[in-house]
Amino acid sequence: GTAAVVVTLADGRRRVIFFEKGKATGADLSQADGDMSFSAKKEADLYMIRAGKERYEIPEAVVFGG
Question: How far is CA 32 from CA 20, 27, 59, in A?
């Protein structure tokens, strides 16, 4: 299925990372963020996400539960 992981940043803003069928597919970036690039790779059970200038490491268990 699908999942959305919500990350609360230190300044109180929130970033949503979207997943579909076990793959990170995007984030809620906007032109106001400046850099709107998105990339993701998975190493073992850890998703390595780049959303604009931000970097995230999200365990697979967060996406699938566990």
Answer: 25, 14, 28
Distance in angstroms (rounded) separating the CA atoms of residues 4 and 1: 11
Measure Cα distances from 11 to 23, 47, 51 in Å: 27, 23, 17
Amino acid occupying residue 41: K
Tens of pLDDT along 10-49? Answer: 999 999 999 999 999 999 998 877 888 999 999 999 999 9
Q: What is the largest CA-CA distance in the chain?
A: 35
DSSP code string of the chain: -EEEEEEE-TTS-EEEEEEETTEEEEE---GGGS---EEEEEETTEEEEEETTEEEEEEHHHHH--
Enter the pTM of the model. 0.88
Token pair recorded at residue 28: 């809620």
